[in-house]
Amino acid sequence: MSIKPKLVLYQILSGTLGNALVFLRPEKARQLSENRIALVHRNKKNMSIPERLMRAALLNKLDKIQDYDTIAEQNRNFWINHSATELFSELEDTFNTDFIPHCTFIFELLKNELSNQPEEFNTIVEIGTGNGDVLNYLSSEFPNINHFIGIDLSQDQIELNNGKYKANKRLEFVASDALDWVRENGSDQTIFVTSRGVLEYFTEPRLQELFKVIHGLGKTIFIAIEPNGADHNFDTNPNSQLYGHEPSFSHNYPKLFKTAGFSLWHFSQKVWYKANDMQTFVGAKN
C-alpha cells in the first residue's frame, strides 16, 4: 500500500474513532469545543490521544461562517476575555519552537535597515503582544531603543505581563484596541511589530485604516509576521480572503501597505509549521 492510501485510511479510522468518542463523551466534547478559537489552537502536546481524536472530529464539524463582520466580532470577543490567557499559556512554548528559529531573521534585517536610517527610532510597539515574550526578546536585541510598549485586548493578560516583566523597566504593557491606541498615543520614530497572528483578526477595511493612521504619524517602520492561507495567490486574488477553521483573514499585506503609502524593504514567505499555512514576513517604512 502506498503512502497516500495509508494516509487516507488513517484519516478515515481516526475520524470514525473521534466521532465515536464525541458521541460517547458528550461532556468532554462540550468542554473541548466550548470556544472555537481555543479548539483550533489548543496545544495537542497537552492532550491525551482520545482528546486529540475528539478535537479532530470536532474541527471537521465546525459550521462555516461567511459574514466578515460576524467573524471579526467573534474573534475579538475571544481575545478580549479571560479565555485568551489560557491559550497564551498553552502556546507559550512556540516562542522557542517557532519564533526563535523561524522568525528572528527579520529583526537582524531590521538592524541593517536602522543602520541606514538618518533618524533614530526610540520606541517599539508590539500590537497583540500576548504573553510578552516577543517584546521582552526585542528589548534585549535593541539596547539603543528605550521604550517598548505591548498592546493587547486582554486586560487579564496585560496584568500578568506587568507582573512577569516588572524587573524590565523598559517594558510597558497596555490593554487597548490597537487602532484606538495608535490614534490617541501614536508618534513618529516608532517601530510597530506584529508576531504570528494578529492582523489576521482585522477586517480588510479596519486593517487599511490602521495602516493609514500609522503612516500619518510620520517616520515609522512596520514589521508584520503574519499567517496567510497557502492557497492565497496575491496575483490572482489581490483581496483578503477567509482561511482556517476559526476562521480568520488572509490579507494581501504588500498591497495593503503600499495602498496606505508605505514602501517595502522586505517581503518573503515560508511554509509555516502548520503545513497548510504560509508565514508572511513584511518590512515596511514611510
| Rounded average pLDDT | 89
- The side-by-side strand order for the widest beta sheet comes to 3-2-1-4-5-9-8
Q: Approximately how much helix is present in the residues?
A: 40-55%
Q: How would you describe the shape?
A: globular
Pfam families: Methyltransf_25
Protein name: Class I SAM-dependent methyltransferase
Organism: Gelidibacter pelagius
GO molecular function: methyltransferase activity
Describe, in plain words, how this protein is organized in 3D.
The chain is of the alpha/beta class and 286 residues long. The protein folds into two domains: 3-62, no CATH class; 94-285, Rossmann fold (3-Layer(aba) Sandwich), CATH 3.40.50.150. Helices cover 47% and strands 20% of the residues. The protein is built from 13 helices and nine strands. Helix 1 packs across helix 4 and helix 11 runs parallel beside helix 12. The protein is globular, with a radius of gyration of 20 Å. One of its GO terms (molecular function) is methyltransferase activity. This is Class I SAM-dependent methyltransferase. It comes from Gelidibacter pelagius. Residues 124-215 form the Methyltransferase domain.
Question: What attributes characterize this protein structure?
Answer:
SAM-dependent_MTases_sf; Methyltransf_25; 47% helix; 286 residues; globular; methyltransferase activity; 7-stranded mixed sheet; two-stranded antiparallel ribbon; 13 helices; single chain; Class I SAM-dependent methyltransferase
Explain the layout of strands and helices.
Layout: H1 3-24, H2 26-32, H3 36-41, H4 49-60, H5 68-80, H6 83-90, H7 94-103, H8 105-115, E1 123-127, H9 133-141, E2 147-152, H10 155-164, E3 171-175, H11 178-185, E4 190-195, H12 204-215, E5 220-229, E6 241-243, E7 248-250, H13 253-259, E8 263-271, E9 277-285
Parallel strand pairs: 1-2, 1-4, 2-3, 4-5
Antiparallel strand pairs: 5-9, 6-7, 8-9
Helix pairs in contact: 1-4, 11-12
Domain Methyltransferase: 124-215
Keywords: Methyltransferase, Transferase
GO biological process, one term: methylation
